[in-house]
Amino acid sequence: MDEQTTEAPTEEAVYDALRECYDPEIPVNLVDLGLIYDVKIIDDWVGIKMTLTSPGCGMSGMIAQSVRNRVLKISGVKDADVRIVWEPQWNPSMMKEEARRRFFPE
After folding, report:
1. Which of 7, 30, 8, 26 is closest to 17 using CA atoms?
2. Distance (Å, whole) CA 6 – CA 43
3. Is the pTM of this model over 0.85?
4. Phi, psi of 73 (to 5 degrees)
5. What's 25's DSSP letter?
6. How far apart are CA 44 and CA 54, in angstroms?
7. What is the rounded CA–CA span in Å between residue 63 and residue 67?
8. pLDDT of 51-102, one tens digit each?
9. Strands across the sheet containing 36-42
10. DSSP string over 36-96
11. How far apart are CA 78 and CA 71, in angstroms?
């Protein structure tokens, strides 16, 4: 009997997947915006700790679900948990340099 083996998910694969997730109001992915604070992988479970650009964002549930759905498509991931946190509070200095240049050209 052949046993199917599935590769364990990697942090790199998770970040690659998260680069496909966007804030619907900002045309920059969540990683480059600096919204992803932590990725934790335990066997086939992935935990994401992230924030949003504003605590009053009415799209928080949709964004979190979008992140979870995308992570669940990664080979080897069976479950994912997305936690939105507000500390530290996000600010534009957390953006990757390229993303920051798009919004704040010199």
Report:
1. 30
2. 11
3. yes
4. -85, -10
5. T
6. 31
7. 6
8. 999 988 889 999 999 999 999 999 999 999 999 999 999 999 999 998 888 7
9. 36-42, 45-50, 79-84
10. EEEEEEETTEEEEEE--S-TT-TTHHHHHHHHHHHHHTSTT--EEEEEE--SSPP-GGGS-
11. 9
Per-residue pLDDT of 42-59, as tens digits, reads: 999 999 999 999 988 889
Q: Which of 7, 66, 76, 67 is nearest to 39 (CA)?
A: 67
Beta bridge partners of 40: 47
Chain center to CA of 98: 18
From residue 29, how far is each of 3, 25, 42, 102 by CA, in Å?
Answer: 37, 11, 25, 12
The number of residues making up the chain comes to 106
